[in-house]
Amino acid sequence: MGRGWLPALQLLRRGSKAVTRHWKAMHFQRQKLLAVTEYVPPRPAVPPHCLPAPRDRPQEEDVMSGYVRLLRRQVEQAFRSSRMVAVCQYNSMPDEDVVTMRHYLRKHNIEVKFVLNEIVRPVLAQSKYRNLLPLFVCRNILLVSPETRAREMLRVLKGIPQVNLLGACIDDTILSRQGVENFAQLPSLEASQGQTVGALALLPSQTSSLLQRGPSLLTALLDEHIRRLRDTGAPGKPPQEQGKGNH
């Protein structure tokens, strides 16, 4: 009988002793030591039921933290110190595009502020800008500037479809999107002042010319009449009567 075939690789498993920990009762002296060293809290000097009930603070102070008050104060400062505050709907966009938008707006002295509706709505409800509350429904951003740069703002937002202009408050006047576009088409303040000064200066000059036209015409007629009388040689008679006397 031939030898059986054996595999080239054989796995051998060696037995090992299992390590188990059996429960053992704690020694009596250790139990006494733990009982003696157990922490016992001291009794209060006055029983809790004898203390006055704590006063209920207003619910607003409990909810509003210091950080929320700081954000609301910043929003109030932005509305107070800015001549133009535009409310825009903000859709998700890459961070690189946000940085680019901030850069182009900052060139025209326009700052971008990301605010939460929970912060802005209580501030607007207690101010003269309460008519802007219907615009703060979704995720919004504020474009604030100490100058009225509506034309430059629209030029920048034209290339950013993720930011849609909803309305603005310019010089304490609330405008819709169409109102902002109409305001952007107006000439600058310097040009308007020049046109106003020109119009005001034109009226007095026209009035002066009208008042001087009558006396000038009368003076011209009298000079012409005197010249004709001198030419005829009869200062006391008109030219026609002198012609009839000669005949």
TrEMBL record:
- Top-rank lineage group of the source organism: Eukaryota
**InterPro entries for this protein:** Ribosomal_uL10 (IPR001790), Ribosomal_uL10-like_sf (IPR043141), Ribosomal_uL10_bac_type (IPR047865)
Q: Which residues form the signal peptide?
A: none
Any Gene Ontology CC annotation: mitochondrial inner membrane
Does the record bear Ribosomal protein in its keywords? yes
Write out the entry's keywords from A to Z: Mitochondrion, Ribonucleoprotein, Ribosomal protein, Transit peptide
The record's subcellular locations are:
Mitochondrion
Gene3D superfamilies from the xrefs?
3.30.70.1730
Alphabetized SUPFAM superfamilies for the sequence: Ribosomal protein L10-like (SSF160369)
Family of the protein in this entry: Belongs to the universal ribosomal protein uL10 family.
The protein here is known as Large ribosomal subunit protein uL10m
Please give the organism: Lepidothrix coronata (blue-crowned manakin)
